[in-house]
C-alpha cells in the first residue's frame, strides 16, 4: 500500500477531529489536529498579554506529542484539556489571523507531515499546509447540528455552555476564519465535500476510508 497524506478541512465542530482520529487509527496513520496548535499559541497569548506576535512565536516552547491521540505541551505543561476552555475559544480566530503565527505553525505542520502517512485536520490543510495531499476532504454540517454536537462535547468535558451562545460562537468564528486575509477557510478546488448533517460517525468514517483506500492502491 502506498503512503498518503489526508487533509480534512471545514468549519467549526463539523466533526473533523473525530473522523480524522478514527481514519488514522484504521490505517495506522498519524493524526494531527492543527486547531490544537492554534489554541496553544492563543493560551500563551492570553498569559503573556502582548500583541507582539513575533515575540510570542519566538519565545513559545510548543511540543506536539503524536502517540495515540495528540497531546499539546506548552512550556513543559500538558495543556491539552485547558485549550478547550471558553477563553481560548473566544480569542483563537483572532490569534490565528496573525501572519507570524500562521508562518510558524504551517512550517511546524509541514515538518510533521514530511514522511507522509498523516491525517491532518484544520482550516487550510488542503489549500496551504499540504497542497499535494493525495486526499482532501471538506467537511460541513448545519450550524444547528454543529452547536448541538459541541454542547454534548462540552457537557462531557465539564465546560459550561448553552446552545444559543454556541451557535453564535460557531457562526462568528466561521465568518472570521472565512474572511481573514491569510489562508482563509475555503474549500480546496480538488477537495471532496462531505455534509455530515444526519450522518453517523461510522457512516462518515466509512465513506472517507473508502476514498482513502482508492488512493493507497
Ligand atoms: N456524523 C458525525 N461526524 C462527525 N462527528 C459527529 C458526527 N455525529 C456526531 N458527531 C460528534 O460531533 C462532535 C464533532 O466535534 P469535532 O470532531 O471536535 O469537530 P471539529 O474537529 O470539526 O471541530 C464530536 O463530539 C462527535 O462525536
Ligand atoms: N489549520 C487551522 C486550524 C485552526 N485554525 C484556527 O483555530 C481555531 C480553532 O480550531 P479548532 O479546529 O480547534 O476548532 P474547533 O472547530 O474544534 O472548535 C479555528 O477557528 C481557526 O481560527 C486555523 O486558522 N487554521
UniProtKB/TrEMBL annotation:
Tell me its EC number(s), please.
2.7.4.25
- Provide the species name: Mammaliicoccus fleurettii
Q: What class of enzyme is it?
A: transferase
Report the GO molecular function annotations: kinase activity
Which keywords annotate this record?
ATP-binding, Cytoplasm, Kinase, Nucleotide-binding, Transferase
Q: For this UniProt entry, which segments traverse the membrane?
A: none
Which residue intervals define the domain Cytidylate kinase in the entry?
6-213
Task: Determine the domain of life of the protein's source.
Answer: Bacteria
User: What is any Pfam family matched here?
Assistant: Cytidylate_kin
Localization in the cell:
Cytoplasm
Q: What SUPFAM superfamilies does the record tag this protein with?
A: P-loop containing nucleoside triphosphate hydrolases
Family statement: Belongs to the cytidylate kinase family. Type 1 subfamily.
UniProt-annotated binding residues for ATP: 10-18
Does the UniProt entry include the keyword Cytoplasm?
yes
Its main subcellular localisation, reduced to a broad class, is cytoplasm
Q: Which reactions is this enzyme annotated as catalysing?
A: CMP + ATP = CDP + ADP; dCMP + ATP = dCDP + ADP
Q: What is this protein called?
A: Cytidylate kinase
